[in-house]
Each structure stands twice: as C-alpha cells, then as structure tokens.
Amino acid sequence: MTGLDEVPARPGSGASSTRAAPGMDLAPPVTPNLASARPVPGASRVGRNIVETLVFRGLSTPIALLLVVVQSRLLEPAGRGTFVLLVLSVTIASRLLGQLGVAVTNRVREAPEETGSLVRRALTLAVTLGLAGGVPIVAWTVLADDIRLDVAVLAAVGLVPNVLWQTVSGVLLGLSRIRVWNLVQLLSPVLTLLGTLVLVLGLDGGVRAAVLAWTLAHVLTAAFALAATRDLWLPLRLPHALDRHGRTLLRLALALGAVQVLNLVSYRIELFVLGGFEGVAAVGVYSIAMQAAESMWLAGAAVATAVTAPVVHESEERAASLVAHAVGRSLLLTAPIAVVLGAAAPFVIPLALGEGFADAALPLALLLPGAVAYAPVSVLVVYLSIRRGRPQLSLAVSFVSLAVTLAASLVLIPRYGVEGAGVASSVGYGAGGLLAWLLFVRLARLRPDGRARRPLPAGG
Q: With bands split at pLDDT 50, 70 and 90, how would you rate the model's confidence at 221?
C-alpha cells in the first residue's frame, strides 16, 4: 500500500488529498461531482439502519437499566455514588481521547484508498494517549477522600481499551458498518452486567469488584472490536503516528474530544455540585434520575448513527436535508418515551431499586423536558463537527449548556437539593439544544423552521 505522504494531489485541489489543515479549518475540500463520483456508504439503508439500531438499543437499554438496578441493590446509595464518580472520571478521559475514529472518518472522505493507513495511525495514538491518560485519573484519587487508590487503579486500567473500541466505533460509523458497530456498543453493558453478577453478587466484592467488572468488560469489548475490524488494520505495521497526517488526525480528534468532554461535563456538572452540597448518597439517588432521562437519547443516537455516513459523503444540499429530517425523527421518537417514563417513574423506581431511591422520581420528571429538547443534538453534531469539520461550533453548544447548568445548579441545589439539580440540568439541556439547531440552520442556509430558503426572484 502506498504511504499517505505519496498520495497524489487531486486535480485542481492545489494540495495533496490529505493535506494537514489548521485546527479551525479541517473541512475537506468539496468537489461539485463528489456525490456522484463515489458511492455513498449507507445512503440506501438509512431507514433499515435506524430500525436495526433501535432493535439493538431495545436489547441494550433493558440490560443497562438492569445493571443500574443490580448495582443499586448491591452497592446502596453511597457505593453507587462512589462508582458513578470514579467511572465518570475515566469516561471523561475516554471521551477526550476516543474521537480518533471520527477523525479518520473525516479524512477518509478525501482519501478512501488510505483507510488502513489512517486506522493504524489512529489505533497507535489511542494506545499511547490511553496509557498517558491513566496517570491523572489515579492522581485525582489522592484528593478524593471517599475513593481508595487500588479501586482507582482498576478503573484507570480500563481507559486504554475504552479508547480503542471507541476509536474503532468511529471508523465503523464512517464506513456504515452499522451491524458491527451495534454489536460493539452492546457488548460493554452485557459484559459489565455479567461481571457484576459474578464478582459483586456471587463473590460479595463490593465497589472494587464492580469497578473490576466494568474494566474487564471494556477489555473484552476492545478485543472484539479489533478482531471484527482486522481487515482495516492488518497487516500490522506501526506507522509514524506523529507525522503530519497523524498530527492532523490528533488535532481533529482532540478538538472533537473537547466537544465530547465539555458535553459530558455539561450534563454531569450538577453531580459534582450536588455531591459538594448534599454528599455521595444524594449523587447516588440523582444518578438514577439522570440515567433514566438520558436513556431516551438512545432513540436520537440511533438516528444519528444511521445518517452519519450519508451525511458525510452526500452533497451539501442533500446532507442538510437528511439532518433536518433526522432531527424531526429524533423528537418524534423521544417525546412519547418521556411521557411514559415520567408517568411510570414514581411507581417503578421504588419497586425496582428500593425505597432509598424513591426520591429520584421528581428530579426525573423535572429533567424530562430538557432531555427531549437535547435529544437531536447528536444528529446536529454529525453535521457541524464531522460533515463541516467545525468542532468549535459543537464546542460552543456544549459550553453554553455547561455554563447554564452550572449557574442554575449553584443557585438551585443549595436550596432544593436533587430537585434543584433536575431543574438546572433541564434548563441547560434546553439552552444547548436550541443553540445547536440555530447554528445548523445558519450554516446550512435554512430557514429557522428547517426549510430551504426560497431563492430570490430574478432581478430581486
């Protein structure tokens, strides 16, 4: 295979097809006949991919909820709160470092024949960055009185496999290999649940065993992801990961990762504020409401998964139309789920988790309106960050959501506790969702209602 440095420039482009680009100018060049010159991955299978992804989500969501029930019963609020805070620290690091596969998707649009070389660079960077990222996670526990050092080390070990399978997932989306992508997403909760049943319930291992089960699940998920995509990275040749092409991948991946981290923190920041004012038991209770509300986003994520490859590879007009319709689908799928979830929560939560978690029902009801408004953001980010290569716009959405949530949390949580956290988060969700939509319609040159603008009449 020819190295990336040897790829000839596309006629008329004025540069090699994988030129390094400034961090704020990563959108690949668009040629007028690009959509017709190459087949668009997944363009004819959007509906089928949405249905298939929803089927897989229909399997994974009950498993994830069952895992919450099992952990809550076995660890109780304080243990559950400790587990959530520790795993959250690893998740933040993996979100920052795990966007290398999405960066590959952005660059493959210019040089599809170099997919293998780009994937090998991404995997090399994933391992390197994952190893480095484990150090601050362990160091953070020195400052956390409620978390033991050995438990933190167990969680930090899970960072490298976490980053690896997320990197592979990003590549699979860009190639529209949705079935394999779905299997990878399903494995983590399934294996975590099995490990929890064996290590926590069977062996009475407590929080340390719960974290070990989580880490082993990510190790096995990464192994499956690499085996399933061996055609993309074999034969194994260690590339120069930090050459100009590797640096381009890293620059875009970290920009996208910053969006993911800020996004994650923006709808988790109230956990830290709540923990500071009310303690880890309140975090354990509120985490149930938060996780139930965010489970609704699986419907929007399924839509985003199905349209990612077509949106990246289609013409600009067609891509904007796909995104606008996908936003509508996300809202139509999410709103009815919210109604059912809000009505059932006061009865289901204490029955499933015990009376100690009964106070999660009200903050959940307060979270739902904002969570519905935020559901289409995963679709809009596909257009803003991946299609247009403008992760700074997605970063602005996350920053606004974070700022609004934090400000509201500092005002409401000291007075209203977990209910204040629910309102603060809902307001932050709504602000982020609105900004993401406004940025999309402006960049795609649409009317605020998502329709195409009418061309000016001749001479107008």
A: very high
